Amino acid sequence: MTKRAIRVARMFDGERLVDGGVLVLLDGGRIVDVQRGRAEAPEGWPVREEPNGTVLPGLVDAHVHLCADAGPDALGRLAERPETDLDAVVEASLRAHLAAGVTTVRDLGDRRGAVLRWRAREVRDLPTVVASGAPVTTVGGHCWSMGGEVSGVDGIREAVRLKAAAGADLVKVMASGGVFTPGTDTTRPQFTDQELTAALTQSHDLGLPVTVHAHALNAVEQALRVGVDGIEHCTCVTATGAHVPDEVADRLAASGVAVCATLGTDPAVVTPPEVVAMAARAGLSAATLRDGAATLHRAGVRLVAGSDAGLGPAKPHGILPETLVEYVACGIPATAALAAATSVGAEVCGLGRRKGRVRPGFEADLLVVDGDPTSDISALRRPLAVYRAGNPVR
Ligand SMILES: [Zn+2]
């Protein structure tokens, strides 16, 4: 029996709220019907009743690191970790995402293609994984411990070809330094325009989009000049700190580039002072991150939701609900935050025709939460049920 029905008070369909009762019918891993009002399920369809529930598409976390176990210095320790350990870490990470209602993740940095190799095993009943493999970075550059160091235009082209051959869905380039790699600089680009252009044209020739990690304002400017498909963090750091200029936000909006602001931390975890200090040295604080996201939203930038899950104790896997709580706290309407984590996220992951909406024909990846997340985003902290390909997750 794969036929199932879910009756809830309301639905967020990936774009907007539908109130007044909703019945969703699932069969064969797909949504086969969505009925409004007090519709009855056809005979023989078991119905799950959630009278105060809201059904929404399974969430899309557009920025995770499945190989990172969310312990202290999780990225730094990747270099020493035996590669044979990584499959178990990847699976534990995915289970944590699924429990929180995240049914699709985009992995933007593994260790030497470990997530791509794990995915080839086709383990079922875990979230769908879109993955880049190890990020392209400079020698000794940001996240070099993931194994993606390259040098020069030829080295970049070769690295992109190898990623495509290994089955990557997109290419991630570290376009500036980052917080957690000592010796890198969050105020400067890592590559020349010519090198970043080579990464982009080689990727596009192979049908792969490119998203870049960019903290530095001049790396964001470079990304716009070169014409990348996505920008991660986008904090616009200069020597005086992080600030997204309105004029840059307007250009980001006009370009249509997808921006992932990577907010979201576990409110129960106190960030250790050395991590706060590390971020401060990089020009970043919780307040500047929120201000930046608010500016991007106001300008009409195409925002997706990604948590950077796995980085450390405050960023465990499955933290995406907190990313959305923070989006709303910085002034983004709840419906826009939810769209970023559903329909828009699915489109940016190349899955917009089959995921990210509660609509007949779409895959039955669903989340039911207690209450109405469009009026109280913290309802996302109260999942009642998660469905992956039409099957309830235990
Ligand atoms: Zn990251």
Helix segment count?
11
Strand content: 15-25%
The backbone outline, from C-alpha atoms, is globular
Ligand roster: zinc ion
CATH class of the largest domain: Alpha Beta
- How far apart the termini lie comes to 17 Å
The CATH superfamily of the largest domain is known as: Metal-dependent hydrolases
Q: Taking all residues together, what is the mean pLDDT?
A: 95
Rg:
20 Å
Q: Helix/strand/pairing class, anyone?
A: alpha/beta
| Total number of strands | 19
CATH topology of the largest domain: TIM Barrel
Query: Which regions have little confidence, pLDDT < 50, spanning 5+ residues?
Result: none
The assigned CATH architecture of the largest domain is Alpha-Beta Barrel
Helix content: 25-40%
Following the backbone from N to C, one meets helices and strands in this order, namely EEEEEEHEHEEEHEHEHEEHEHHEHHHEEE
Summary of the model, kept short:
The protein is of the alpha/beta class and 394 residues long.
Keywords:
single chain, six-stranded mixed beta sheet, 29% helix, eight-stranded mixed beta sheet, Urease, subunit C, domain 1, alpha/beta, 394 residues
